[in-house]
Amino acid sequence: MLYTSPALETLIERLSGLPTIGRKTAQRLALFLLKQPNEYVQGLAMSIGELKQRVRTCSVCANITEDDPCPICRNSKRDRSIICVVEEPNDVLVIERTNEFKGLYHVLGGSLSPLEGIGPEDLKIRELLMRLSPDTGEPVKEIILAMDPNVEGEATTLYLAKLLRPIVDRVSRIARGIPIGSDLEYADDATLSRALEGRTTM
Q: How far apart are CA 17 and CA 50, in angstroms?
């Protein structure tokens, strides 16, 4: 499509490069921004600039933070004997929203994917093992593996479980099963199988 404004076309191209944003959505966003006051657009641009300047990776858990170590790692009230291992920083946000987990985190920065050339050396696995060293302070008693329920997540879970079992007292994984509010008849076989495996005593 030919736009009468090269600046508009450039913005649409940039926006369409964002995750889950197709060209039509990018066009709507660009036209929305065009209608906004200068203060709004300049504030948005400034926020994006500050994001890149101020946000970094925590040197302990690899979560995103502005202060190093991050507030979770610095919090003395967190249970330091439990570490929940996740793939990406947004997984930390999801788990924190539940207000159920009171331990620490470790962000791998992805999952094992041989097809994409991502192996163990490309993830923050070495850093995780360093945190489990006996001379790092309070011993870690449990590692919770909270990977995405897909092929890559499953491969990462199995790899880490095998690696960590000789080092940590307990290696567990988050339960998977039927979501609340759904019907059994609509559950796929794999989900139903996981739900049966992860059943609990009432």
A: 20
Give the domain CATH number at 16: 1.10.8.420
Q: How wide is the angle at C-alpha 141 spanned by C-alphas 139 and 146, nearest 5°?
A: 120
Q: Specify whether 84 is located in the same domain as 120.
A: yes
Report the distance separating Cα 86 and Cα 106, nearest Å.
6
Neighbouring CB atoms inside 10 A of 101's CB total 17
CA dihedral sign of residues 72, 73, 79, 85: positive
Q: Residue 162 sits in which domain range?
A: 75-173
Strand 56-57 and strand 64-65: pairing?
Answer: antiparallel
pLDDT tens-digit profile, the chain (202 residues): 556 789 999 999 999 999 999 999 999 999 999 999 999 999 999 999 999 999 999 999 999 999 999 999 999 999 999 999 999 999 999 999 988 899 999 999 999 998 899 999 999 999 999 999 877 677 899 999 999 888 899 899 999 999 999 999 999 988 777 777 777 677 777 777 777 777 665 5
Question: Closest Cα partner for 58 from 121, 124, 122, 156?
Answer: 124
My answer on whether 95 and 21 are in the same domain is: no
Cα-trace Rg, the chain? 21
Q: Dig out the tokens for 112 from the structure.
A: 């094992």
Q: Could you tell me if residue 186 is inside a domain?
A: no
Q: Nearest-CA neighbor of 64 among 97, 91, 36, 101?
A: 91
| 69 in a structural domain | no
